[in-house]
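USER:
Make up one protein:

ASSISTANT:
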Amino acid sequence: METRRQRVRMGELRNVKHDTARGIVTMSRHRSSRRFISLFSGCGGFDLGLIDAGFTPVQAYDNCADAIVHYRFNVCPKVAQEDLTQFVPQHSQAPDIVIAGPPCQGFSTAGKRDLADKRNHLLPLAGRLAANLNPKVIVIENVAAAGSGAHRRYWEETENHLRSQHYRTHTFKINATEVGLPQTRSRLLLFAWRTRREIKFQLPSISDGRLDEALSGVESLPNHVPEPLKPGSRDYQIACHIGPGQKLSNVRGGPRSVHTWNIPEVFGKTTAAECGMLEFIMRIRRQERRRDFGDADPVSLARLRKQFKGQTQALVGSLLRKGYLRHVGTDLDLCYSFNGKYRRFQWEDKACTVDTRFGEAQLFLHPNEHRPFTVREAARIQGFPDNYVFDCSKRTAFRLIGNAVPPPMGHMAAVFAEALL
């Protein structure tokens, strides 16, 4: 019997197609024989989705040697290592579709989101190179943040160029949960087409993904090498205090946040009065704002004196010495003011975005074991098939997986692309 885990790995999506008469996506056993070229292919997650939908790869291009090796071994031998800022792909026969997944680091809210990041220009470059290959349909993927704020200029530049080449365009926002994956990964897909087709970009209903079902049966698979935290280590002691659905966070209250002052064996003992001051600062730094940026402000000594009166000097001095408070100019703020580390997911829930750091225990913890996720577990959450083998270091494997387009997302893009042809 087919398990939900198997369905998460594109089983449900294999029967999805477009109903031309109604203009919407429906379920069918139709298979395509369309040809596609892949730009900025990475290790081939996007491509696997199209291949699973029946599309035929013509050629893939990327500049990462590790990605090329894994693409060639796991996806298709028709891949070339090229710097697409210096190399212009040329093919005598136009493909039906060109797909592209240019780097997202300059757009991502998980990074510096630098407007001047040179990699941002790879997005409009992808549009120009794709249009130069003269396909009927183009699909370009990037993070959702590429379409917001000042960074949107690069997305609009891409759209405008494609329209100047007589393509019609549509931007479609999709979350990995909508294709059955157990992670909240929001992405933009830019569709461009030079056909007369009209469709509704509407997703069919797909079963929700859960971590317990997605990770079932990984024990004997390649790349599943659990690395338990060493008992007694700092990471282990912190992990012992983090329950399912919780994280280490000094800047949020509620049952989902565990504070450093709740782990005295690691961060040092505190008195009840000191905990009271720390919890007060945790609340007030977000409630009484003085700046119009960021999500919190340091707290003034005068504000603390108003609340704690004669105890203020002694409490502040002690918490500064113990490393729980720090000076920010003349004000005071919490140490460890990150939103959350050591996030432990729940079996019945979803993970956050699988990124290149998903294998670090300081960031993400297994639901019920004191360890980080394995490479195979990350690949499962991304929707990679179990026969995709990562023959490289763990760090490289997580980078390849985190940078990839989830194959089920690629499959759904293929369904829309087929409908536009």
